[in-house]
Amino acid sequence: MFKQGRTTGPTHGERHGTTAVTRVYQCRMMQSLEQVVLPDVQGGHFAGLGDSGALVYGSQGEVSGMIWGVATSSAEDQDSVSAQRTTVALDRAVFVTPTEALLLDIQAKCDRELGEGKVRVSVIPVNG
Fold first, then answer.
1. How far is CA 128 from CA 2, 31, 56, 62, 77, in A?
2. Rounded mean pLDDT of 44-54?
């Protein structure tokens, strides 16, 4: 995966998995499924403060999602296959909202504001 961020510029990373994330906005809790991306360079960073909103692309140049945040601590994860506990260093982890979730959210907002079915939200592929 790669991105061009305002703060950190172009970087590469690897998707580590998907996790449920709870966010609090104006006293309202939301839970979402986010992709976790870690840098592919030892000691590097995939994104930093100020990169939120940058699009993340897959290996074929397809939009994979949008950065919404960078973690600042660590967490333990239960590996369901080996049943061993592993600790993921989240100090360089970046949370990416998948494209599908973005489109569904935009569609729902358009339906509420403009009337259901008045607008159809989709991604138009660009053939290079």
1. 18, 36, 18, 12, 40
2. 89
Count CB atoms within 10 A of the CB of residue 35: 20
Q: Does 77 have pLDDT greater than 60?
A: no
Q: What is the pLDDT of residue 122?
A: 85
Give Cα 12 to chain centroid, integer Å.
14
Residue closest to 89 by CA, chosen among 75, 106, 69: 75
Range of 64's domain?
A: 2-98
Are 36 and 95 within 8 A, CB to CB?
Answer: yes
Could you give the CA distance from residue 94 to residue 20 in angstroms, rounded to a whole number?
Answer: 13
39 assigned to some structural domain: yes
Residue 94 to residues 63, 68, 87: CA-CA distances in angstroms? 16, 8, 16
Domain total for the chain?
Answer: 1
